[in-house]
Every structure is written in structure tokens, then in C-alpha cells.
Amino acid sequence: MRFKRRTLMQIADMICGNYPNESTNFVYRSSSFLTEFFADVETDYTHDGSTRQHWVADALEKILAEPHSGVGTVPWTFALVIQRLMDPEDAINEDSERLGALTILNASLAREGFEAYYASDSQCYLRHVATNTTTAPEHNPHRPFSAAEIERRTQLSAYLDNASEDELIEEILLPLFRQLGFHRVTAAGHKDKALEYGKDVWMKFTLPTQHVLYFGLQAKKGKLDASGVSRRGNTNISEIYNQTLMMLSHEIFDPEFGKRVLVDHAFIVAGGEITKQARNWLGNALDASQRRSVIFMDRNDILDLFVVTNLPLPTAALPDSTSWPDEPPF
């Protein structure tokens, strides 16, 4: 996505607040406040002391060059820039809907075929006029991460080093799949090992056609390998084989429809690495129809998805969380 330089310079003026004091609708931002502005939208741009308008326009051009998916959309980071620029708390000489500021912004965005508007949550969003498409958050786990996102990913990885399988399921996988649009995400008796039938979680996903797909999930804490003797903390893929067969062949009861159904796909999720040999072994052991139903997710997949969906870290993963001893030190 590319905007005309004229448009970028005008939006840069709005971010800088380069308007006469008596008629301004935008907050004036000096060098340090420009750095703070871009930090608020989870970027690493730091003002270098150069001309503010040109520096901001250059930063916006780089943001618009970020990879993103969807016709008639801009990178989510640019949408966050507009959302931060139009924060209702920054209203000057107008109400929280900021009609004056919105008019100025839309005069520039119209040149690119976009329109800014306030939704019911009082946040400003970008809509492509021709396609009526609103830019939504990017959940692409393969996009470049910011420094803040890399730090969160590192903290979560350290948490997974010590998390139990129950914590992996309850603190990470359940909120993650709910955030990704799955519903009826239900833990299947993992703690007491009752009525699992090869799966720790079952859930379903509704397609745009309103057809429903059912998923079972088997989670393991550590690495999945195909070696003859697995090291401590690792799981041999042969142990997953029977659980996968049970998962694919055993019915689950969906209370929303009042009937029993088979799962369409099986997630094999590991808190560590799933080796290529393990994937190949399970693929060869299953028949063709079963093989197509298996989806693998290892630690890297979990970390990337958790970060891009912007889920809060578990309390134990936060850097200021403290594990208190059983007895006070006095």
C-alpha cells in the first residue's frame, strides 16, 4: 500500500500539531512526544532531531510498506496510528467525536480512497470507500515483530519452559483458540483423565457459509520426537498415535445442536518442538484420510500466534511476578 507524499505530509502535520494555535484541532507534539506517539502504536521509531513533519512522513511511509493481507486495507499499524491520532481524549475545542479533526483527516484520506469514522466503542477506524472494507488487526504470525512483541515472546517462551500440561492448556491454548475465533472451546477432563478419548480439548469453528467444523486437540508439554528412547521431558510420537486414532473415531456431544458428532480435524500441540521425523512417522502411520485431518502446532506456532493476537501474558510470565516461598523468611 502506497499513499501519495502529499497525503503523508498532511497527516504528518496533524500528528505534529502544526496548526495555528487559535484554530488547531490537533495536539502539538515536540520531538519527545513524537517518539512517545509512535511507541503507543507499538513501533520503535525514535525522533532523530530532524524536521518533524518530514520525519513523521518518512515513518508513515515505512509503516505503509509493511506486508499485510486483504484488498482495500492498510497495515494494522497504520490503522493504529490513525486511532491514536484521533484519540477522543485529545479533543481540543470540540467534543469527543472530534468532528473538526475528522473533517480535516478525511479531506486527506479521500485522496487515497479511505475514510475515517468513529465506531460505537468511540475508537476511530479506517474504511476503504470502494470496497467498504474496514482494516482489522493483522493476525499474520509471519509478519515482522516489534521490539515489544519480541520481548513478550521471550517472556512467554520462558514461561513454557516451566509450565505443566494443565497450565499449557488452561493459560495458553484455551484463551488463544477463543481469540482466534473458535467457540465452545472445552477442556475434556485433562486434570482427572476422565472421558478424554484421546483429546484434551474439543472446539468448533463456523465457516462463512455457516457450516461447522469440529476439532479435537491433544497437548503435550515438551518436545515430540521419533527416537527409540525419548529423553526426560520429551514425548515419543508413537504415544500420540493411539490418542490421535481415538480422537478421530470417538464422537463428542454438541449441546448447541443436541447431537453427537465426529471431529473433523485433530490438533497435535506441543509446548516444545515437533521434529520433522515425528511428523513423518505419524503421517506414515495414519491412513490417507486420517493424515489429512491432522494439524501440527509446536512452540514457535504458539508463541507467534499468542503475540500477534495481543493476548495478555499469564501472570506467572510477567517479569514482576514473584513466586513466594511456602514459609515467610522471618
UniProtKB/TrEMBL annotation:
Record-given protein name: Restriction endonuclease
Source organism of this protein record: Nocardiopsis exhalans
